[in-house]
Amino acid sequence: MADKIGVSVVGCGFFAQNHLNAWRDLAKDGVELIAVCDIDAAKAKAAAEKFKVPRWYTDLDVLLAKEKPGLIDIVTRVETHREQVLKTVAKGIPTIVQKPFGFDLGDCRAMTLAAKKAGVFLAVHENFRFQAPLRRITELLRQGVIGTPSWGRVSFRTDYDIYTGQPYLLNETRFVINDLGVHVCDLARAFLGEVEHVTCETQRRNPKAKGEDTATMMMKHVNGAVSMVECTYGAHRLPDIFPQTLIELEGPKGAIILYKNFDLEIMVGGKITKEHADAEVLHWAARPWHIIQESVLATNAHILNALRSGKPADVSAEDNFKTFACCEAAYKSAESGKAVALEPLQAKAKSAGKAKAKAKPKARAKVKSPKRPAKKAGKKSSKKAARSKK
Ligand code: NAD
Ligand code: 89V
């Protein structure tokens, strides 16, 4: 049995239920849930009772004063990430923060720099690349089955009702790129390499949404590869395959295509090899979310192993900063109608991040365009009655 590690989960809302289940499954690897925290006392208490966690809090500062977690897992919404991560990192506590890492690249840089300066482990819970079919594609690419891909498509298209489980998404001024774009851009980087520039068009198909719900991006990768990277919550397609991501990759030796329902085809030397790459439906999971739920367990297990072996996670803060830079470039491209190079953006965010990292959260400059989601909207939805975790 591995050494024990005390884990605290901050935020006990909709998606945290998956994290709590996954940490409970990792008890066999020494994980002990020691405390949970949510500003909504009912949610913190309910999570503590359901997952047999000995202590619950409604204030992260109090938790940090009383507990000594070996790992903190922040599963609150984006507007709280920067403030919370700066607190946990200042205490020297290894930290995981849910996606999107920050609201903008300045946030991401401030957190990345703070962790680097303090020498504290910081990972982003970017789980899509840990989904079973996408893990399989990574493995095939590492084996060089199709050679280095020079073209790819990463596609997430649905109009599944995500708003019942995540009503706050309708109020996000940065909507689908921050919510789904982070996943598909991360996959494009993972499969085709670092990105040189991004072109993007956005659409708002659902009039009730404040922000864009559709993004079509084209990326030029540093190695010359090109990818089409798309995500929408407004595609009226049947069957709706939520929450599946479809992949196409073409390399010098062949192609890999992930079709709907996890059917994977590997085309090499004039032959097609077919695999069914579905994930196990874990004992606490249910279709269609099982593919995401199993990836939460895989992501947590990967991050825990990285922490224990003293290495950065594959989805470290530094790595996810590069994914978020693609998203920032996509927003800027949609605004300007031009291709946006990543390098100057990353350099700019680096210096801005340094200055902001020193400032207290209250003293932070207001983001002019696009605006951050109104605090009221977040509060209102967080107080809603307990929702299904599916
Ligand atoms: P939610 O609103 O249901 O849950 C957030 C919880 O955080 C609420 O219970 C709220 O009371 C609590 N909270 C707010 N401020 C807090 C604070 N200062 N201290 C402690 N608790 C606080 O939101 P959600 O849908 O669970 O989303 C949480 C995060 O998970 C978001 O960043 C979202 O993007 C992400 N998410 C990821 C996936 C994925 O597949 N990776 C899927 C869904 C959501
Ligand atoms: O946050 C997310 O990743 C979600 C999804 C529905 C894909 O889980 O919105």
TrEMBL record:
Gfo/Idh/MocA-like oxidoreductase N-terminal domain mapped to chain residues: 6-124
InterPro entries linked: Gfo/Idh/MocA-like_OxRdtase_N, Gfo/Idh/MocA_oxidoreduct, GFO_IDH_MocA-like_dom, NAD(P)-bd_dom_sf
Span list, region Disordered: 350-390
Skewed-composition ranges (Basic residues): 351-390
Pfam families: GFO_IDH_MocA (PF01408), GFO_IDH_MocA_C3 (PF22725)
Domain GFO/IDH/MocA-like oxidoreductase: 135-256
PANTHER family attached to this UniProt entry: CONSERVED EXPRESSED OXIDOREDUCTASE (EUROFUNG), OXIDOREDUCTASE
Name listed for the protein in its UniProt record: Gfo/Idh/MocA family oxidoreductase
